[in-house]
Write a structure and sequence with these properties.
Layout lengths: L2 H10 L2 E6 L3 E6 L8 E5 L8 H11 L8 H6 L3 E9 L2 E8 L2 E7 L2 H18 L12 E6 L2 H8 L3 H8 L3 H9 L6 H22 L1
Parallel strand pairs: 3-6, 4-7
Antiparallel strand pairs: 1-2, 2-3, 4-5, 5-6
């Protein structure tokens, strides 16, 4: 889902755009202060949010109950979980604290962590708890969101192979059960479909 559509969804669910720069847009619930609930997204892009990041964001949108001040929480942390998700040739990174959901995108992990370390101090200064600062020794606990890969793997049933290879499902099932064996032409079709599967897996997991 593209960011422009995400923005409309957030506004329809009671969030408001409070700040927009050349890089970022900050949103908060209509009835809350930014140091209570804040979503930080990249500026609008034609690149859609990957599935796992979008799902996590939508869950956060519905969690607007009272929360501890995220700047205070962050000022006491030594390690910050950074969840990374790959989509096409872009890496998306997200930080999710109680009250803060920050999304960045870049070409590699260093690019993501550099952006986050540049963004967080500015957010903390702009909050009501400006006395809080980012720990100098803050490190990142890197995790990988593989939602799209798991979704793809769940599709790897006989009907998926049948669609990809052009061989009917009944025949594929007979191949799988050992009741029939593919002809040379069918073998080439299967090899090509397996190669395509391999390429898709590399794109999703790389």
């Amino acid at each position: 889902m593209k960011l422009v559509v995400v923005n409309k969804l957030l506004i329809n669910r009671g969030w408001r755009l409070i700040t927009k720069t050349s890089r970022l847009q900050l949103l908060a619930p209509t009835e809350a202060y930014p140091d209570e609930h804040l979503i930080v997204l990249p500026v609008q892009s034609t690149t859609p949010l990957p599935t796992g990041t979008l799902d996590s964001l939508m869950r956060r949108v519905n969690q607007t109950q009272s929360a501890p001040s995220w700047p205070q929480l962050l000022s006491r942390m030594q390690s910050l979980e950074l969840i990374i998700e790959k989509s096409a040739d872009v890496l998306w990174g997200r930080v999710s604290l109680n009250g803060l959901f920050l999304v960045v995108r870049g070409n590699d992990i260093t690019c993501l962590t550099t952006q986050i370390l540049a963004i967080l101090p500015d957010l903390m200064v702009d909050s009501a708890n400006s006395c809080c600062g980012l720990p100098e020794t803050l490190s990142f606990d890197i995790r990988h969101d593989m939602t799209e890969l798991w979704s793809f793997l769940r599709q790897l049933r006989a009907n998926y192979i049948a669609d990809l290879s052009g061989i009917d499902l009944t025949t594929i099932n007979r191949f799988i059960s050992g009741k029939e064996f593919p002809s040379p032409k069918q073998t080439i079709q299967l090899q090509q479909s397996f190669q395509e599967l391999s390429n898709q897996l590399l794109r999703l997991s790389g």
